[in-house]
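The protein record filed here:
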Amino acid sequence: MLDQGAPPPHDASAVPPSPGLAARLMRRKPVERLAAEGGQGEGGSLRRSLGLWQLTMISIGATLGTGIFVVLGEAVPKAGPAVTLSFVIAGLTALFSALSYAVLAAAVPLGQLADATSIGTLFAFALVNVAVVVLRRTRPEMRRTFRVPLSPVLPALGFGLCVWMMGSLSTVTWVVFGVRMAVGLVFYFVYGHRRSRLATPVPSEARTHQK
C-alpha cells in the first residue's frame, strides 16, 4: 500500500467562528439587501410567501381561538361536567362567525369595510360622551366606580372630536351607516314591542315581592 502522506493541516482561520447568542438575537439586515429582496427601490413589491388559503386559515383560526376562550370563560362556571360539549359548541359558533366574516371581507372592499366599522365605533363613543353628561345631571345619586374629570368639558370635547372624524368619512359610508341604523332600529322596536318590561305583565306574586 502506497503512503498517501499526512492529511493537509486544518486551517482554523478558514472556518468563521459561530456567533454567540447575543449576536444572533441582535443581528440586523442591511437596508440595501432588504430593498434588493423586496424590489428595486421604493415602490417595489415584497415577495408573497402566504397565499389566500393560508391567510384565510389564519383568520379563521384566530377567530376560533378567541371565541372559544371567551365563551369558555363564561361557560365553565355554569356548564360543570358538560364543559367539553360547551367547548365544541363554542368552536362551531366561532367557526360560523369566522366564515361569515370571511365572506363579508371578500365581498366588500377593505377600505369601505374599515370606514363602516369606524363610523359605527365613533357614533358609539359620541353617545357615551353624551350619556356621561346626561347621567351626571339626571342620576347624580348613582354609585360610580369612576367619575370623568372636568365634566362636561371633556365629554364635550370627546363628542366634538367624534363628530369631526365622522364628518371626514365619505358619503357612501354615511349612507351605509344610515341604512344599518334604520334596520337595527326596526328590529329593536319590533322585538321590544312585545318583549319589553312595560308590555310584559308582572305576576301578582312578583308584584307583592317587589313591594
Summary: The longest helix spans residues 110-138.
